Structure formats: C-alpha cells, structure tokens
Amino acid sequence: MADVTGEAALALRGEILRALQEDGRASYSRIAASLGVTRRLVTQVVQQAVDSNELRLTVSISPDLLGLERFAYLQVAVEGAVEPVRQALVALPESSFVADVAGVFPIDVEVRVGADPHLSDVLATIQGIPGVRSVRTHMYESIEVNRYSPLRTGHTDFKVDSQDRAVIAHLQLNGRASYRELGEAAGLSPGGARLRFERLKRAGVVKVVAMPVRDHQRETPSIGMGIRSRLATGEMLHFLRDLEPEFLAVTVGSYNFVATFSRESATELIAVTDALRAEPGITAVESWANLRVLKEQYGEGDRLSVVSETSTGGVE
Question: What pLDDT is recorded for position 92?
Fold first, then answer.
C-alpha cells in the first residue's frame, strides 16, 4: 500500500476484507469507491490475503437445502491427549465449527443435524470418542446472525438440479468465478449461469463469503460468549445486534444466548465485553478465546448431492 503506511494501512486492509464478508462477490470497484482508494489496491489486498491462506472465497449453503433442522453448540471436556479428540471432531460430518478454546473446556463444536434422532446419535458418537470426558450441550432455538452462512430460509421445498449443483460446487472452489467459468462447469451459457446463481442467491439458499482461515494463531483471537439475561428475547437481541457479533444464537441450556465477536484489536474486544457486563439486563457472561479454529464449514458439495431433484415443487 504505497500511499498508506503503518496502522492506517492495517485499518484500511481490515475495511477492505470486511467489505467482502457479507458478499464475497461484491464489486472491487464499488469497495474502492466507498473507501476512496483504487480498484487496483483492493484487488491487491484481497489477492494477498487469498495467496497467504488468510482468506478463502467460497460459498455457504442454506441448512434448508441440506435437510438440516437442528443445531447445537457443544463444549467438550477432555482427559488425556487432546489431539485425537480434535481429529475425530473435525472429521465428524455433522460438525460445522470446531475450535481450540481457552477455558475449562478445551474444545468447542457446533453441530448441524437432520430430524430426530440424528442429534442424539451424534451426541452419543461424540461421547464415545476416546478421551472425551463430558459434553455440555446448548441447543439453538434460532440462529440470528451468521456472517459466514445463510440462515434458515423456510424454503424447504426449494429444488436444485445437476446444473445448480455444478454452479455451487464451482463456487465452493472459487467464490468469485466468472459467469463464463460457472457456465463451463455447468454446461450453461454465461447468461444461464448468472440466472442460476441469481435465483439461488435471491432465495437465500447460497451465500458467497470471504471466509477467514483461522487455523493458525492470530494476534487477536475471536471470543465466544455465553450470555444469561433477564430481559425479553427481542429486547436482548436488539442490544446484542448493535454490538455487531459475527455469530449470534438464541439458546436453550446454561445460556440464553451464544455469540462470537471478532475485532481488529484486543482493546476493541475489551470494549465489547465491558458493554455486555455493564448492561443491567444481563445476569451473567462467560467468555472464552477461540485460540485456533480447526474447522469452519457451512455446506458441502457432496452433502448437496443428496437433495432430490424431484421431491418437491421448486421456488422460481
């Protein structure tokens, strides 16, 4: 960044990458114009982040399209060696998020499952992993914010075909692939590929995201929080949304809410925790640092292949 140095350059870099978090296909020209920099600079920052494996541009898939109905956050206590437990949890098809954390529980996991008894089966599998001493489970009543994944849409009747799946599979490899490239992958014209993508996006069943690769130590880790509150859920959600979490769920269990916050500095994260602890309606806050994110994956191409092409009437 020839025209910006030091802290200003880091801050600008952070703004450029954040602009892609909600829409991984956002126009570089539009981002540049909004920040008062050149398109070339935006392209350079993003490419460096991708090349250094700090960022991947991919697509996440709606839980509805994958037949996923229930979600839970698990805190896993371990006895003995932790590494085999890590490996088993990362390999678990139902785990969407796995992290090493600081605190009483060394590993936390999010699982996404289908209809009962899928969840109880998965919990039994995790409890049976050698080295797992206990699991504390928090059921999600609803996911209110997830920066890197579509939320549930209610489109359980959405229908995809082989060409839709080919478009999605290619976007998982390169979220910013051109419509010409998507068309070649799916046997469509560029215009046809654009129409397919826009239909999927409009229905909320896919989301192209700039996903941070967080499997290595960061200077400022993200923090998870379990929050108990005496306020009505809607009132508390309004307060928590204003703090700009990257993830927020209403839960049943030891917490009323589970949230994840990430910022550019420890000072900014401290400001978030201070705001939470100063809120009279919050009765307790437990926090933990995500020291290393081992898995963060919201939808797989091979999982998508199980969705029937003819089971329901599609959404146009």
Answer: 96
